[in-house]
Design a protein that fits this description.
By secondary structure, the protein is mainly α. The protein has helices at 4-17, 19-37, 44-64, 68-85, 98-113, 126-129, 136-149, 156-176, 183-198, 202-213.
Length: 214
């Protein structure tokens, strides 16, 4: 495995060399959130595809930067989210309520403003050019936040997959790379895992309703 300094240098190069892509991802995530809060409820398979896209983006830039480990992990994670989200393609997503909704928005905000890797410049650059969609931790944060907002697509498997991804990259960033703010991603992963086990699977909800009607 490359040295920590080499990994950090590669991530910094991606973050600063492709900021125009990060700006596009900020716009896309903002538009997606706006659509959700205006009442759009897409099929689960479609929303899973939208969540997989930033993971694929991280994979692409990892391969370009010569980091095959991140490239392989993120393309695999994207494919898994796509596959698990397609299990019930006709079902539509629903929004979380209460604490999980606010937690999801906070986690998206953490990924949106991720204050690392950009070279010195105005602080307000993080409002639109933080490396979301380019490097692992802010991207996993944003996708984790989307999962929290949408009840993990009502898929415990999707939630636990993303929680595991966040736990690994959060701990790796904080303990191996010295990016201590990545502990925030560890906390977000834990919240998503708790939500996964507290949420009742859709089949059980429908079965309970059917029992009540009978």
């Amino acid at each position: 495995m490359p040295a920590s300094a080499e990994i950090l240098a590669g991530l910094s190069q991606i973050a600063n060399g492709w900021s125009i892509v990060a700006i596009a991802w900020h716009a896309a995530i903002g538009a997606l959130l706006l659509a959700l809060f205006l009442g759009w409820r897409p099929p689960r398979a479609l929303f899973a595809a939208l969540m997989a896209l930033p993971l694929l983006s991280v994979s692409l830039f990892a391969w370009l930067a010569g980091n095959p480990f991140n490239g392989a992990v993120f393309v695999t994670a994207a494919a898994a989210v796509l596959g698990l989200g397609a299990v019930s393609p006709g079902a539509r997503i629903s929004l979380s309520t209460g604490g999980y909704l606010f937690a999801g928005l906070a986690v998206i905000g953490f990924g949106w403003l991720y204050p690392h890797f950009l070279e010195s410049g105005p602080v307000w650059r993080y409002l639109y050019a933080a490396p979301t969609g380019l490097v692992p931790c802010p991207t996993v944060s944003a996708v984790t936040g989307l999962a929290l907002v949408t009840r993990g697509l009502d898929s415990r498997a999707v939630s636990l997959l993303l929680a595991a991804l966040g736990l690994f990259y959060g701990l790796f960033g904080a303990l191996r790379l010295g990016v201590h703010l990545d502990i925030g991603l560890v906390v977000a992963a834990a919240v998503l895992a708790v939500q996964a086990f507290q949420s009742e699977p859709p089949r059980l909800r429908r079965g309970s309703a059917g029992t009540a009607r009978s």
